[in-house]
Amino acid sequence: MSGESLLSVRGLVKDFRERGFGPGRTAVRAVDDVSFDVYPGETLGLVGESGSGKTTIGRLIVRLEEPTAGRIELRGQDLRGLSGRRSLEFRRDVQMIFQNTQNAFNPRRTVRSVLSDPYQIHRLASGAELEERIGGLLRRVGLTTPMLDRYPQQFSGGQRQRLGIARALAVQPALVVADEPVSGLDVSVQAQVLNLFAELRRELGLAMLFISHDLRAVYFLCERIAVLYLGRLVEIGPRRTLLEDPVHPYTRALIGSIPAFRPGGGFTRTVIKGEISDSEPVKAGCHFAPRCARWRELGQPARCREERPLLRPAAGGGLAACHFAESSPRPLDGVAELAGGIG
Amino acid sequence: MNDVKTAETVLRVRDLAVEFSLRGSVARAVDGVGFEVRAGEIVGMVGESGSGKSVTMLALLGLVPRPGRVVAGSVRLRDIELGALSLRELARLRGRQMALIPSDAGAALNPVTRIGSQVGEGLAAHLPELPRAERPARILDILKRVGLPRPEQQVRRYPHELSGGMQQRVAVAMGVQLGPDLLIADEPTTALDVTIQAQILQLLLDVREQSGTSILFITHDMTTVAEICDRVLVMYAGQIVESGPVVDVCTAPAHPYTRALLDAIPPLGGDPPERLTTIPGAPPDPRAWPAGCRFAERCRLREQLGNPDKCTSLAPELASDGAGRRSRCHFTGSAAEAVVR
Amino acid sequence: MKTQVAVLVTEPRPAARRRVPLLTTVGASLGLLVLLTIVIGPWLIGQDPYAIDIGNRFAGPGGAHWLGTDELGRDVASRIAYGARATALIAVGAVAIATAIAIPLGVLTGFLGGWVDLVVTRVVDLFFAIPSLLVAIGVIGLFGASVTTTVLALGLSYWPFYTRLIRSAVVGLRSRPNVDAARVLGASRLRVIRTEILTGLVPLVLVQTTVLLGFAILDEAALGFLGLGVQPPQASWGSRLAESREFILVHPELALVAGVPIVLAVFAMNLLSDSLRDRLDAKRTG
């Protein structure tokens, strides 16, 4: 994971204020000092439960939201305050695939009209060439040209997600942010869409930020996985390390709560007590501490409640934000660099 | 639940058929479904959208929406034939002997009624003999049993003030409070985060353990079925295509559809495969089920066998192997299958 | 729990003819009748609505006068038919004015949000607080009663509520993922409004147009009845109502004949708006 990063996120913070005007409104910190990189051609998985901030991070990267603090750089260029023309160029570089809902498409526009958007906005094609390119795009994602005159709601969930992929790929982006693209799909359809992602990535050299709560889908598609808890990045690392040798207690609990497919093995999931919403997060310390099994094992050390744990290199080539995680004595080069960047 | 095999039958469904008439065409969404649920058993009903699992569930509850109607079959709960009941009797039965845990508790709970009153409504309707003064204690008791944190505070809250996991716990409480024989759990964890999913599944297992309640667990997720169910029914295109003990079905599926469904689960651990196994095509149109096997068009086994005519000309029966497994495939367990594997 | 059913219902439907609900048929027939009255009614009846024939006052139906004559011996049928033209003109004009104000203003405030929304919405609320009849009377008091002022008066009394309706619809549409998708593709605000917002407003505007047409017909009649609308001798449904009022005790049939077309037209508009709503909703989900 060395070399120039395509996307670099540093110290990203996003506060959401309560609706209304004037003072006295509390702000909710949805994303709390998050840093990571996505390298060219790489797929990074972003996992976490509701309230983890994963969707907000995706929206910040595609600039649907403005960050409260922190930098997002694409090929070393800061994305804040891009002028109109540069901003349009950025839109060609970074695209988004939305969660499969009917609302991802305007029900009153045909597929032809929807897929013409990217070509018209960026003046890439018109007339016969437009028609040809839309057709090619549709075939590329496994749909057929007669479907062009249908409306999105006449498609099945899987087909509609293919349309969403086609819309995002039209401008040939370098990075695609996919927000829960396979949730809500049937298992067999989900497999088809995941295969399509894998194919496109191989053929087009796409880099992807794959946001999902489904660890199986993430494991299949993503070389590296980042785990979020209450707006903070708690662990990031290569998929096998993260799954087979997780360091952070939350990652362990999360992985333990996924059903392991072992027929006859019975119910073996780890059941962590409580819910994210149960406790007010301790701003100063570790957000997970109140639910952390390790914290209780260690006799509830004060440090967890008082000092925010920073991402540190961990065994297996990853990074973890836990005071009591076993750290690796010799961090890998790229990782050390990243860790330094965050420091 | 070791004695499940000899336990008495709680639910017996025979030849159930449900039709929807839409704009002149008739869709037989459920077509000859039959199965049993025994006391203390958790039976998984698995299928993708359009398989008929949800309509089957609605038919069991007597809640098939218009323009659908049950056109054939029998549903017996203990010794009560549900088809013979009046709407009123059926309503009395629901909640008391048979209860539903909905997939989206947030939507199923009444948004303008406090949690306590909502749980109490069931008591008032089904247990009028219970003195009014004893209701609050009873409500707190049941909420405690489903592990709702700080129940004394929650009873005064409205559903939207609770998290998804807590709402689902309330739904479970409302389902189990009258000690029903059968709980129908309709994708009860689909909308929840994994850590909360684990909590709710644990809760269902506890309910079964403590009260011996039978559970019909409706889901699209084979991995959950594998860990909590005793037996599984696999549905495809309005029919049961395979049923049997979970371990057998999951480790050695008899029907090609079951096999395909299991193969489509992305593996966790090791080096991931280049591509996942998928099922080509889409399920058939319920308004015109194919004459032969409904899975034939998408079946890998049929392809490997050189597309025998039998698959498309003759509808396979749901054949039993005599040891509690059933499969709807002409070539299940045949020598041919052994060869292609 | 609903998935299964939804899937069944949303199967891509073939070209099979959809059964038209009875009420839609009734509404459309009535609407067509009104339209025919406006377009060919006067020609069909062939009577001059302004020809006074004092010797033939209050004549019963029959002969050349299908619906009899009024207090001045004028042909009632042709006065209704010509009146329909004036009333329709007023209704369409009023709705056009309200729509022309409401759509841009509603889209602007709903889409932009922020202080623009805050300021404009308060101003709209201010107008909203004035009873619409008062607005109408004010306009008429200022400019005098005529077809033009009636159009203006009604149009100005409808726009505040219509603007609020459009605004709230736009607020809903703005937060849909398809708008996010367009923004991520780099669409300008104007383009997003054109491709995602305005298209989404089509059903609402269609339904509201029919509803408002019904209101306008009714309000024109009310203003006419109060003597504030179209002034006699010019024919309109409202002025016809005002004229017949004076003789309601002696010749109630005149008031009846004046009232029935109004009831039928408004009824037709309400039925049509209902069936439009049903149809468009079905299309949205199906």
Automatic annotation (TrEMBL), chain A:
GO molecular function, one term: ATP hydrolysis activity
Domain named ABC transporter: residues: 7-255
Keywords in alphabetical order: ATP-binding, Nucleotide-binding, Transport
Family per record: Belongs to the ABC transporter superfamily.
Entry-linked Pfam families: ABC_tran, oligo_HPY
Name this polypeptide is given: Peptide ABC transporter ATP-binding protein
PROSITE patterns the record matches: ABC_TRANSPORTER_1 (PS00211), ABC_TRANSPORTER_2 (PS50893)
Gene3D superfamilies, sorted: P-loop containing nucleotide triphosphate hydrolases (3.40.50.300)
NCBIfam families per record: oligo_HPY
TrEMBL record, chain B:
A GO molecular-function annotation: ATP binding
Superkingdom in the source lineage: Bacteria
Alphabetized Gene3D superfamilies for the sequence: P-loop containing nucleotide triphosphate hydrolases
InterPro entries: AAA+_ATPase (IPR003593), ABC_Ni/Peptide_Import (IPR050388), ABC_transporter-like_ATP-bd (IPR003439), ABC_transporter-like_CS (IPR017871), Oligopep_ABC_C (IPR013563), P-loop_NTPase (IPR027417)
Short name of any one Pfam family annotated for the protein: ABC_tran
GO cellular component: plasma membrane
Family as reported in the entry's similarity comment: Belongs to the ABC transporter superfamily.
Location of this chain's protein in the cell: Cell membrane
Chief location category: membrane
Source species: Acrocarpospora corrugata
GO biological process: peptide transport
Membrane topology label: Peripheral membrane protein
Keywords: ATP-binding, Cell membrane, Membrane, Nucleotide-binding, Transport
SUPFAM superfamilies: P-loop containing nucleoside triphosphate hydrolases
Domain ABC transporter: from-to ranges: 11-262
Protein name: ABC transporter ATP-binding protein
UniProtKB/TrEMBL annotation, chain C:
The ABC transmembrane type-1 domain, residue ranges: 84-273
GO cellular component term of the entry, any: plasma membrane
Source organism, top-level taxon: Bacteria
Main location: membrane
Subcellular location: Cell membrane
Keyword Acetylation tagged: no
UniProt keyword terms in alphabetical order: Cell membrane, Membrane, Transmembrane, Transmembrane helix, Transport
GO biological process, one term: transmembrane transport
Membrane-crossing segments per the record: 20-45, 88-114, 126-159, 197-218, 254-273
Family, similarity comment: Belongs to the binding-protein-dependent transport system permease family.
The protein, known as: Nickel ABC transporter permease
Organism (species): Acrocarpospora corrugata
